[in-house]
C-alpha cells in the first residue's frame, strides 16, 4: 500500500501527463516533462519505492577499467568539486555514458544516508529502469539540468535533489555525466541554481582537460571573449594537425562553429585567416578576427611539443631498394661525412624525410641528435623562436627559463629542414649566418653560442626559379645545395612491391591483426599513378585495413580513385579477374613475392612459360618500367 507521500506523487505525475498539453505552462520544466513522458513509455511505476540497480563488483571493476583514462583525467576535478559542496552535505557522482556510477565522493558522516537513498558507487541510473533522475535525464537531453525532489518520476527518489551536466570528448561524443546530489534540501528548485552552475563549470574543466590530453602533439588554440581568461578558463579550444585539418574541439567551440557556419568546417583556415593566425603565434594572448563578420576573440596559440619521433618504416630493405635511391643514399652519406650540406628534392610525399633519416643513420653522426623542422607546417611567427630559441624574459609570455632552439638541440648532429622553400626571407638571412659562422644567437640573448651541426634540407619547390624571382636567397641556395639529390616519385620506382608489402605489414600491425592483399587489389596498387606518393600509399592501405573483411584486402576495399585507375591497359578488371588462369598466375606471384622462379615451380611450369603467360594476360611485373 502506498504511503501518503507516494500516492500524492503518483497523482501529481498522472495529472500532469494527462493535462499538460492543455495547460498554458507545465508545472515542471520542459526537459522534466519530456523525461516523464519517456518514463511512462518505459511502463515504469511512479509509485515504486525500489532503489536503483547496483552493479556487482566484477562488472563494476570491468567498467572502471574500460573508463580508466576518463576517470584518471576527471579525478582531480571531481575531488575539487566535492570540496566546494561537501559543507552543504552534497555528494558527487561521476557516471559513464551508460549511467553507471564509476567514481563517488561523499563524507563519511552522510555516507549511510546517501546509500539508503540510492547514492553509491556502482549504481546504474538508466532512464529505462529508474525514470527521470539527474544522470539519466542528462544522458537523454545532453544538457546541464537539475532534477529536484518531485521532479523525479519514481517515488523512491523524490527526497533527492540532483544537479548534473554532461561531459563530452573532443569529437563531440558523450563521455559521461557529472552529478552533485543531496538527500535533504529546500523545496524551492531555485535553491539549486548555484550548485548547477558549479557542476556545469566542473564538467567543462573535465572536458578541457580531456581535450588537452587528446590533442597532445597538435596545434592548439585557446580562445575567450576576454583576455584575462584565455589561459585559466578558455571558452573555446581548437586543435589541428600539421596540414591544418581540425582534429579536436571542445563542446563550446563545436557550438560556435555550427552557429557561424551551419556545420563544423574541416580546416582551420576556414575558421581563421592563416596570416592572422600566424600573427597570434608569439605566445601572447591577443585579439583574433574570425572569417566573415565574427567578433574578435582573444587567443593563445601553442605549437606541438618537440619530441623525438620514431624513424618512419617505409623504406625498402637492402637489395629491394630502388637502385637510383640506393645510389643516392650511398653518395649522400659520403658527401655528408665530408661536411657538405645535402639538398633533397622530390614531389610531396616522396619520402624526403625518410631519406634524410637514412642518411643520418648511415653517417658518422649516427649517434648524435637528428632534429627535424617542417618550415611549411609551423606559423611564420614561430619559426624563428623554434630554430633559434630565446633567452629568459625575451618577450611577453616567454618561459621564465628560456628555451633552447632546434639549432642548439641539433648540436653535434643533423638538422633536417623540410620544405626549406617556405622559410621567410628574413630567417633565411639568419640561417645563412649560422651556417657560415657556426654560431647561434637566441632571441634576447646578449652572447652568441657555438654550434656544430650538419644540415639536410628538402623541398618540392623549384628553388632556382624562386631565386630568379627573388623569393629565395641565392647565397643560401648555394650554401645548402652542396650536393643535390632528386628522389623519384613512387610511380616510377622499381621497389613499389617491396614498399607496398612493408607499409601493409606496418598498418596491419597497427590494426592488431594480420591483413593480406588479393591479387586483384595488388594489381590496383601496382598500376596506380600515385600522385601523392608514399604518403598517399600509406593512407590508402590504412583505409583498406580498416574496412576490409576476412583479413584480405579486395579491390573494393581500396579508395575509389585507386580502383578507377588500376589497369594501365584500360581493360575491364572484373572481366579479367574471372579468368582462372590469370588469377592462378597472380595468386602464385603474390604468394612468392613476385619471384618468377618459385612462382613457376609452384605452378608446375617453366620460367619461360610463366613469362609468356604473364605477357598474354597483361600482368605487369614489379620493376618492369612502363613505356
Notable traits:
five-stranded antiparallel sheet, 5 domains, 627 residues, Beta-Lactamase, Rossmann fold, single chain
What is the topology?
Elements lengths: L3 H16 L10 H12 L11 E2 L2 H10 L1 H18 L4 E7 L4 E5 L2 H9 L6 E2 L2 H4 L3 H8 L3 E4 L12 E8 L5 E9 L10 H22 L4 E6 L11 E5 L5 E4 L1 H11 L12 H6 L6 E3 L8 E6 L20 H15 L4 E4 L6 H11 L7 E5 L5 H9 E2 L12 E2 L1 H4 L4 E5 L6 H13 L1 E2 L8 E2 L3 E6 L3 H7 L4 H7 L2 E4 L9 H16 L4 E2 L1 H9 L5 H15 L4 E2 L6 H5 L8 H5 L2 H12 L4 H8 L3 H10 L11
Parallel strand pairs: 13-20, 13-21, 14-17, 17-20, 22-23
Antiparallel strand pairs: 1-4, 2-3, 2-7, 5-6, 6-7, 8-9, 8-12, 9-10, 11-12, 15-16, 18-19
How is this structure best described in words?
The structure is a single chain. The protein has 627 residues and is α+β, with helices and mostly antiparallel strands. The protein has five domains: 4-210, GAF domain (Beta-Lactamase); 216-302, no CATH class; 323-392 and 401-486, P-loop containing nucleotide triphosphate hydrolases (Rossmann fold, 3-Layer(aba) Sandwich), CATH 3.40.50; 491-562, Helicase, Ruva Protein, domain 3 (Orthogonal Bundle); 580-617. Helix content is 42%, strand content 15%. Helix 18 (496-511) crosses helix 20 (533-547). Mean pLDDT is 83; it is low at 307-319, 395-400 and 565-578.
Amino acid at each position: 500500500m502506498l504511503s501518503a507521500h507516494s500516492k500524492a506523487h503518483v497523482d501529481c505525475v498522472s495529472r500532469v501527463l494527462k493535462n499538460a498539453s492543455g495547460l498554458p505552462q507545465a508545472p515542471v520544466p520542459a526537459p522534466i516533462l519530456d523525461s516523464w513522458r519517456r518514463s511512462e513509455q518505459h511502463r515504469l511505476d511512479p509509485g515504486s519505492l525500489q532503489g536503483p540497480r547496483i552493479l556487482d563488483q566484477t562488472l563494476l571493476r570491468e567498467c572502471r577499467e574500460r573508463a580508466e583514462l576518463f576517470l584518471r583525467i576527471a579525478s582531480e576535478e571531481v575531488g575539487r568539486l566535492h570540496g566546494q559542496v561537501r559543507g552543504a552535505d552534497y555528494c558527487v557522482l561521476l557516471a559513464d555514458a551508460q549511467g553507471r556510477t564509476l567514481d563517488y565522493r561523499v563524507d563519511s558522516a552522510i555516507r549511510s544516508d546517501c546509500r539508503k537513498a540510492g547514492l553509491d558507487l556502482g549504481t546504474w541510473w538508466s532512464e529505462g529502469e529508474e525514470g527521470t533522475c539527474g544522470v539519466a535525464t542528462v544522458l537523454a537531453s545532453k544538457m546541464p539540468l537539475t532534477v529536484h525532489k518531485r521532479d523525479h518520476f519514481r517515488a523512491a527518489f523524490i527526497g533527492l535533489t540532483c544537479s548534473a551536466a554532461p561531459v563530452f570528448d573532443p569529437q563531440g561524443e558523450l563521455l559521461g555525466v557529472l552529478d552533485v546530489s543531496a538527500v535533504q534540501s529546500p523545496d524551492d528548485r531555485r535553491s539549486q541554481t548555484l550548485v548547477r552552475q558549479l557542476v556545469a563549470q566542473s564538467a567543462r574543466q573535465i572536458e578541457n582537460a580531456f581535450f588537452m590530453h587528446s590533442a597532445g602533439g597538435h596545434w592548439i588554440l585557446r580562445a575567450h571573449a576576454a583576455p584575462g581568461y584565455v589561459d585559466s578558463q578558455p571558452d573555446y579550444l581548437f586543435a589541428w594537425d600539421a596540414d591544418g585539418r581540425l582534429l579536436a574541439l571542445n563542446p563550446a567551440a563545436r557550438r560556435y562553429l555550427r552557429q557561424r557556419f551551419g556545420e563544423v568546417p574541416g580546416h582551420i583556415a576556414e575558421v581563421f585567416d592563416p596570416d592572422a593566425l600566424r600573427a597570434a603565434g608569439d605566445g601572447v594572448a591577443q585579439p583574433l578576427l574570425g572569417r566573415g563578420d565574427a567578433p574578435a576573440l582573444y587567443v593563445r596559440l601553442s605549437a606541438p611539443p618537440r619530441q623525438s619521433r620514431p624513424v618512419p618504416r617505409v623504406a625498402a630493405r637492402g637489395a629491394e631498394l630502388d637502385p637510383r635511391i640506393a645510389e643516392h643514399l650511398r653518395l649522400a652519406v659520403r658527401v655528408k661525412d665530408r661536411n657538405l650540406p645535402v639538398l633533397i628534392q622530390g614531389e610531396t610525399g616522396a619520402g624526403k624525410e625518410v631519406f634524410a633519416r637514412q642518411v643520418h643513420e648511415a653517417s658518422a653522426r649516427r649517434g648524435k641528435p637528428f632534429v627535424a623542422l617542417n618550415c611549411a607546417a609551423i606559423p611564420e611567427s614561430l619559426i624563428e623562436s623554434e630554430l633559434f630559441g630565446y633567452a629568459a624574459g625575451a618577450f611577453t609570455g616567454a618561459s621564465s627559463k628560456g628555451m633552447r632552439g632546434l639549432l642548439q638541440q641539433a648540436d653535434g648532429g643533423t638538422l633536417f629542414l623540410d620544405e626549406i622553400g617556405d622559410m621567410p626571407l628574413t630567417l633565411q638571412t639568419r640561417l645563412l649566418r649560422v651556417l657560415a659562422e657556426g654560431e647561434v644567437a637566441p632571441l634576447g640573448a646578449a652572447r652568441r653560442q657555438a654550434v656544430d651541426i650538419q644540415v639536410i634540407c628538402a623541398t618540392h619547390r623549384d628553388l632556382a626559379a624562386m631565386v630568379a624571382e627573388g623569393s629565395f636567397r641565392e647565397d643560401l641556395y648555394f650554401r645548402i645545395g652542396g650536393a643535390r639529390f632528386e628522389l623519384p616519385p613512387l610511380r616510377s620506382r622499381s621497389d613499389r612491391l617491396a614498399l607496398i608489402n612493408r607499409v601493409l605489414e606496418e598498418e596491419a600491425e597497427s590494426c592488431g591483426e594480420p591483413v593480406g592483399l588479393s591479387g586483384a587489389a595488388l594489381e590496383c596498387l601496382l598500376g596506380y599513378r600515385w600522385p601523392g606518393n608514399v604518403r598517399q600509399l600509406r593512407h590508402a592501405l590504412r583505409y583498406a585495413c580498416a574496412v576490409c573483411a576476412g583479413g584480405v584486402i579486395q579491390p573494393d576495399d581500396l579508395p575509389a580513385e585507386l580502383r578507377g585507375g588500376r589497369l594501365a591497359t584500360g581493360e575491364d578488371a572484373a572481366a579479367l579477374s574471372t579468368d582462372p588462369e590469370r588469377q592462378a598466375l597472380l595468386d602464385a606471384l603474390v604468394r612468392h613475392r613476385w619471384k618468377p622462379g618459385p612462382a613457376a615451380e609452384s605452378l608446375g611450369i617453366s620460367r619461360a612459360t610463366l613469362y609468356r603467360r604473364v605477357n598474354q594476360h597483361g600482368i605487369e611485373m614489379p620493376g618492369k618500367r612502363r613505356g
